[in-house]
biotin--[biotin carboxyl-carrier protein] ligase
Amino acid sequence: LSADGALLPGLRVEVVEETGSTNALVAERARAGEPEGLVVVAEHQTAGRGRLDRRWETPPRAALTFSVLLRPSVAPASWPWLPLLAGHAVGKTLRAVGHDAAVKWPNDVLIDGRKVAGLLVERVDSPAGPAAVVGIGLNVSTSRQELPVPEATSLALEAGGAPDRTALLVDLLATLGESYAAWQAGGAAAEARLAESYAAACDTVGREVRVDLPAAQTLHGRATGVDSRGRLLVEHDGTTTAVAAGDVVHVRA
Ligand code: BTN
């Protein structure tokens, strides 16, 4: 697997055969002062990480697993947009090659209600300033046994053939680069556009949901949209709560 080009300014793609976690590897490089634009792709992760301290492991080449190092110039208050922006970019890329992909708030990508990609965005502080590591795991395997969780899906299972992972990576980086540049340059107006476009592509919006909040609280209600800070709006008990972080379960349409 290989890729290069000027898709993100300063893009440098490194491919490793095996590592624990590309997010951990890129975070280490960020701490050592590595500039924005490093992408590390692993053919195999032996200690892949998911959100909420979960594991995210797949056999060699069963997924496209990579992490991107970004050093956004926008105010840290806007950084919660990054996982949504990146998930939305994955969804757009998959739709462009014919998949009926949607995002699930905050940062899963679904095809036909099943998870095809997960994202883990982590903030790293370093003497060179703060950085964000955007980790993406996209299932490509032809075998259901090779999925990170049994109820997931993969591009091969959806399309009846294994995709070209290099072409996919190039497309993903191009779309991500474009969305990232528009967000960085566009200020509040770009975030308002992003909120609208994300909500339109989001399978969560319009559904009955259960949200497991970080403080072991649970919210039941209907997701009605995404606000200008990327928070999920949930209508319940005659009021609307803006959820900044939580695990969402789609209850029904
Ligand atoms: C989730 O669904 O909970 C997030 C999964 C994120 C997996 C990707 S694979 C590349 C990167 N490196 C990791 O260790 N995790 C992310």
Observations:
- The helical segments are 22-31, 81-96, 155-159, 165-200.
- Residues 21-23, 45, 48-51, 54, 56, 65-67, 118-120, 135-137 surround biotin (CB under 6 Å).
- Residues 1-6 have pLDDT under 50 and may be disordered.
